[in-house]
Amino acid sequence: MKLVSTLIVRDEADIVGAQIAYHLNAGVDFVIAVDHESQDGTTDILEGFARDGYLLRLPESGPVLEDAWRTRMARLAATEYGADWVIPADADEFWLPRHCGLRETLAAVPERYGVLGGLICHFVPRPDDGRMFAERMTTRLAQSAPVNDPTSPMRSSLKALFRADPDVTVLHASFWIKSEWLRPLPGWNLFDVLHFPCRSVAQWGRKTSRRGHADADKPLGQYVKGLEAVTGGWIDDLYQSLVVDGDALARGLADGVLVQDVRIRGALRALAFPGSESSAEEEPATAARKSSAGPASAAAAAAIRAAAEDTALYDANLVRFLRNVDSAAARADALERRSSGPVRLLKGLRRTLSSQLEADSGSTGPWRSRSAAAVGGPGSSATS
Predict the structure, then answer these.
(1) What is the pLDDT of residues 280-292, one digit of tens each?
(2) Digit-coded pLDDT (tens) for 254-279
(3) Are strands 258-260 and 139-141 parallel, antiparallel or unpaired?
(4) What DSSP string describes 226-276?
(5) Does 330 reside within a domain?
(6) What would the pLDDT profile of 187-220 be if each residue is shown by its tens digit?
(7) Can you tell me whether residue 298 is helix, strand or coil?
(8) Which of 52, 89, 252, 350 could form a disulfide with 93 if both were Cys (CB 3.0 to 4.6 A apart)?
(9) Angle of helix 42-51 relative to helix 16-26, nearest 10 degrees?
(10) In the structure, how many helices (H) and strands (E) does the chain have?
């Protein structure tokens, strides 16, 4: 089995080396990376992996063409590098299997399934004390309910990992996969995708500045808001509003809104990655497994939390869909003088879906059981 990871990077020197080293150690065989006009040392890091035979760097300039670049890399993985599976990622994303190793998980997938879901788990920014991101950012949002704010970088969403296909099309940062034969595995997310989007005010300002323009490839709400903050001179205030200080951390952990997750810190410490601290001190996760609760209780708690987060993802996707229906209904209102049919249809559809959501709340009925089947379809998009 050959695993190929694909990346699009620009000025990610603070994290991209750790991201690549982690995935190579986890079982990835090769990395294909588009380097878009990096100027902060990212290119040197990529070239180092290339010299060692682990990476192909594809330099790009000009407008961002994310879908085209991701599709090109996925097809190269299938046709030129003999991939069996393609693992698409950004520089700030780390794929972790929920149950066993990366290769063991993929080997267990029945042949008839070709698209798997990974739940994106957002780590909250912490005060910048000069340490590397993985040492500071060890707390993530416990997504037990959807974040219904289009400007938040912490919204629940699903990313797709897929079998190699020379004709695949990758859309919306790998939230959608278009293929004639790849079939998604429904109802079960096998991976967490640990996401570190906001690592410093300088990094967040750079990212939102280039991604928030109306003509950008992916002007999501959080990028538009960040661009407004940069141009308005209040990016420091915006970033500080996202940072979780010590008091907020304690409250969030106590209330169950936040959860400690040291898996990436532990993995990088085990690799002795530059910037990691000594791993002589026992990791909290290891201590928890040795506690009186026992390994079975810890595993059950983790499974329950994952199920709750998968359910929240379903709810978030339905909220996005209803928001799109509302938008379409508003546009159709302008045509009501000509014909009231489209308006009645859209409003009726929204009433039906809203009723279903209310009836389904708190249940495990058929709507909820399909939460992961949206991989490769519009329900998994994080663009709305």
Answers:
(1) 544 444 333 333 4
(2) 998 899 999 999 999 999 999 998 75
(3) antiparallel
(4) HHHHHHHT-HHHHHHHH---HHHHHHHHHHTSEEE--HHHHHHHHTT-TTP
(5) yes
(6) 778 899 999 988 987 887 777 666 545 455 555 5
(7) helix
(8) 89
(9) 30
(10) 14, 12
